[in-house]
Amino acid sequence: MDSISRRGFVATGLALLGARRLTAQDAPAAEPGAGEAPAARPAVVLGDAARKLHAAALVIDGHNDLPGEIRKKGSALDLSQAQPELDTDIPRLRAGGLGGQFWSAYVPAETMRTGGAARQTLEQIDIIYRMVERYPDTFQLARTADDIERSRAEGKIASLIGLEGGHSIEDSLGVLRDFARLGARYMTLTHSDTLAWADAATDAAKHGGLTSFGVEVVQEMNRLGMLVDISHVSVETMHDALRASRAPVIASHSSAYSIAAHPRNVPDEILREVARNGGVVMVNFFSGFVVPAGAVVMARMFDVGRELKAKHPNPADFEQAMKQWHQEHPIPAGTIHDVVDHIDHIAKVAGVDHVGLGSDYDGVTKLPAQLEDVSCYPLITQELLNRGYSAEAIHKILGQNVLRALRQAEEVARGS
Ligand SMILES: [Zn+2]
Q1: How many CA atoms lie less than 13 Å away from 392 in the CB half-sphere?
Q2: Is 360 a known active-site residue?
């Protein structure tokens, strides 16, 4: 989840059901030439070789916010039918050849202050369980790397649970353990806001990274076999997490800072540490994180969200104000080439064993051309082929790297 315009959804419950989502289609087009790459690059054309390679690959995505959409829309939302207002539905998941998905159990960071973070996280986990139960021919709950491979062999989409933000545990290791028992396989250490024990990338730093309790959280996650997720956290928190973790860490949905200077993106020094740690940086597709000019505008988004929230206590007013801010600060959508530039960069700096995909579908307001929804993954395979990547390297990027990281985290847990 990186669309701050939707942060109010939990606290307001049904009140937001009628609120319209700001989609890529709603957002105004960028001014011609406003920070677009100098020369437009040609559209990617899917050929037979890429199609075959993709069909044979285990494709695993690190972050999808569909559960938040289900919370808003309720049981009326039928995922077996086309849902053009969303980025995700079953027909397009199948077209995209997805084999595994970490579904995000996201609740807004403001629940730290308003209360109910753990309860709302439990409700989001329930939504994921119920989604899997409603479409048993499509989804299968997965907890381990072996589970993912088993689901894939049965032609189902392995469904994993990711917690987006350490605020969900309400400073309690017992609650962390309970979430692990329910099947949560990663926890992003923070969301947008700095916690009592960890600094976020998009908030004031209070601790210079992790506190000693923050280090304990990381160690307990290692013991539980839960992946430590460094998306959304400050660079100091990334350093501290990498130092504290005995298992590979992931960034479930983060792109490269050297390509697009958003504080949410991962700088090269961390990419090299992730390589040493055996972890994986899974590239976020949000235009505001991948297109260089967009990242500059979006760098202010979380601050603006906090300011507007203070100014507009009524959630509908806040949604409106946020929507207006997005309209007044258009960003270029970019194209699939921008996203593959990030994959390419991470593969060069960290190595091809340390890059993956973490789309953030249904959690963002704008997506690049040819990556508009979950049906588009095969085009990434095509573009990687176009750039000279081997079949083996492409399989790693599409899913084998994160599978390996999860398996290693399980081994560390068994050994503790
Ligand atoms: Zn996010």
Answers
A1: 2
A2: yes
Residue 1: its pLDDT value, please? 81
What is the distance in A from the centroid of ligand 1 to the CA of 69? 14
Q: Pick the catalytic residue: 54, 167, 232, 326?
A: 232
Mean pLDDT of 230-241: 98
Residue 92 pLDDT > 90: yes
Is the pLDDT at 30 greater than 50? The verdict is no
List, in order, residues 6 or more apart from 140 with CB less than 8 Å away.
132, 147, 150, 151, 154, 156, 157, 158, 159
In the chain, domain spans: 4-8+46-415
* C-alpha dist (Å) from residue 359 to 19, 34, 230, 290: 24, 24, 15, 11
CB atoms within 10 A of CB 310: 9
Residue type, 360: D
Q: Quickly list DSSP for 287-340.
A: HHHHSHHHHHHHTTHHHHHHHHHHH--SHHHHHHHHHHHHHHS-----BHHHHH
Residue found under tokens 């994986």: 280
Instruction: With CA atoms as reference, report the closest residue to 224 among 188, 181, 168.
Output: 181
* 4-8+46-415 CATH choice from 3.20.20.140, 3.40.640.10, 3.90.550.10, 3.90.105.20: 3.20.20.140
pLDDT beyond 50 at 108:
yes
- 267, 235 Cβ separation under 8 angstroms: yes
Residues in contact with 175: Cβ distance below 8 Å, sequence separation at least 6, in sequence order: 118, 168, 169
312 is catalytic: no
Q: Is 63 a known active-site residue?
A: yes
Q: Answer whether residue 231 shows pLDDT above 60.
A: yes
